[in-house]
Amino acid sequence: MQISTVVPSVKNSHIQAGKIVYIDNLKVVLTILVVLHHTFITYGAPGGWYYSEKTTKVAAQILMTIFVATNQSFFMGFFFFISAYFTESSYHKKGAPGFIVDRFKRLGIPLVFYSFILSPVLSYLVYRFGQGHNITYAQYLGGFHHWIDFGVLWFVAALLLFNVLYVIVMLLFKNVKALPIGQMPCITTIVFFTLTLALGTYLMRCIFPVGWVLQPVGFQLGHFVQYIALFVLGIMARRGEWLNKVDYKTGKVFTMMALLMLLIGFPAIYYLKIITNSPIETFSGNGCWQSLMYACWEQFTGIFIIVGMVGIAEQKWSGQSVLIGKMSRAAFGVYIFHPLILISVSMLFRAWSVDPAVKLLLVAPLAVTGSFLLAHLLLKIPGVKAVI
Q1: Continuous H helices in the chain
Q2: Which of 80, 303, 312, 364 fits as disulfide partner to 231, beta carbons 3.0 to 4.6 Å?
Q3: What global pTM score does this model have?
Q4: Could you tell me if residue 227 is inside a domain?
Q5: How far is CA 342 from the centre of its chain?
Q6: Residues 6+ apart with CB under 8 A from 371
Q7: Is residue 1 part of a domain?
Q8: Per the structure, how many domains does the chain have?
Q9: Domain contains 7
């Protein structure tokens, strides 16, 4: 999540205080989407979360589903891509031992903290205030057994694993770092890559359908074909300096294609679901043709959004205000602590007798704002800043 490494070849207008500014700005957007994603799941969208109040309004359910499905198509894969882009420069700067020590400090410490400190607190909040069990925290811990629980930090666990595997490959295969990387892929190549990604995702979901979770680390392996591919692609992009070569025209083309996937592709899938009377599980995997269709929609939508965002932001968002700069610095803290804020705010609104879709309109901005404020304050604590 730290993306402050300078890439020398990036245009000077895009570098500010040791950062690639437009990528730093996009990181803020992705972090906000993470908070909103879990807020939407809380109040009606499909997915697992600590606490939920599902709306019964069909229109609201459809809109929430479109939002989380679109997010899922790209935002975590984009995080892996960005993280990988800055992995190699950090590795060469610190060497293998220093790099591993740094990764275990910046990624391992948050994992331990979340699992042993934050996770029990989150579970207790829901048990005490969401389910109405009137017991103390000490009493709750007496029966608590889920001490290895990475929660939302499954991403951090996966990133740590990918980093360790990267170091192993670099040490065992000396010629890997000398492999030539070509020019920025053309539109045809990107489309072919996305099709391959979709087929790989479909095959993976024949074994591990969406919703299947590898415990206790929390990996949904049905999404990992994209995550692995984009992590590798991030390393290739760094070597080929691709982030300096995605032009504005390409960004607009892919943005338009992404809009077509959203405005035409998703309604088409929903229409087929209705006329074939297919249960939602058929889109999750197990070799169903609906799963292949959904995997194609998901991967094409996600990759198109990523390329579109990079191309447009590289030209149009190369500056950064003081506020966005502070939000960027707090982004990793937001990722770690936003469940605490979201669950707490949800508990405050729990007794309000309105439809959950209405609660969403208030809880979402409060959760985003509160998460960034908390992370900003935590960065002032000595020692915390060195980790997050």
Answers
A1: 21-43, 58-85, 87-103, 109-113, 119-125, 137-142, 154-172, 187-207, 224-240, 248-260, 266-276, 289-316, 322-329, 331-348, 356-378
A2: 80
A3: 0.91
A4: yes
A5: 17
A6: 35, 334, 337, 338, 341, 342
A7: no
A8: 1
A9: no
**How far apart are alpha carbons 173 and 167 in whole angstroms?**
10
- Residue 10 gets which letter from DSSP? S
What whole-number distance in Å separates Cα of residue 107 and Cα of residue 100?
10
Q: List, as one string, the DSSP characters of 232-245.
A: HHHHHHHHHTGGGT
Q: Which two tokens stand for residue 124?
A: 């207790």
> Vertex 205, ends 203 and 66: CA angle to 5°?
120
90-107 pLDDT, tens digit per residue, is: 998 999 999 999 999 999
> What pLDDT digit, counting tens, does each position of 321-347 carry?
999 999 999 999 999 999 999 999 999
Distances (CA, A) of 142 to 114, 116, 137, 145, 375: 19, 14, 9, 9, 30
CA-CA distance, 18 to 278, in Å (whole number)?
Answer: 51
**What is the C-alpha to C-alpha distance for residues 21 and 26, in angstroms, rounded to an integer?**
9
Structural domain harbouring 356: 12-378
Residue type, 227: Y
